[in-house]
Amino acid sequence: MYRCLFVAIATAALVAPAAAQMQRNFPSNALRGSIVVASTSEIRLNGRSAEFAPGVRIRDQDNMLQLSGTVVGKKLLVNYTIDIGGQVKDVWILRPEEAAMRPWPTTTQQAEAWSFDFGTQTWTRP
What is the DSSP letter of 86? Predict the structure, then answer.
């Protein structure tokens, strides 16, 4: 019994760091921006007032879900999506290698005009 428990813990300890560094796949409607979190629902998105959607999903650099309260007062470089009501629905806090991926659209107009390759997670300008 204890051997099985030990093996399970050892396996989890080895797999978790490797899984955390896997490439994340962002959807084609993800935009890049800067978010300053003022409260659990109010933010500054690219310098403008915005709101988190009620079911916002914030993923940290290890792709773990975070509560909005844990990022209050922080300025974050992120990829994000907007819901149909104009609220921020999904947020991915970027790792340095993800932030270096350029170009990345910052507006919906750019995202509609550019081409996205989901496999390589790269954008091409027209």
Answer: S
Domain membership of residue 67 as a residue range: 28-107
Considering the entire predicted model, what is its pTM?
A: 0.81
pLDDT tens string, the chain, 126 residues long: the values are 555 545 455 555 555 454 456 889 999 999 999 999 998 888 999 999 999 999 999 999 999 999 989 999 999 999 999 999 999 999 999 999 999 999 999 999 999 999 999 999 999 999
Dist. CA 87–CA 96, nearest whole Å = 26
Distance CA 73, CA 105 (A): 25
Note whether residue 64 is domain-resident.
yes
Distance, in Å, from the CA atom of 95 to the CA atom of 114, rounded to the nearest integer, reads 23
Q: Is residue 20 part of a domain?
A: no
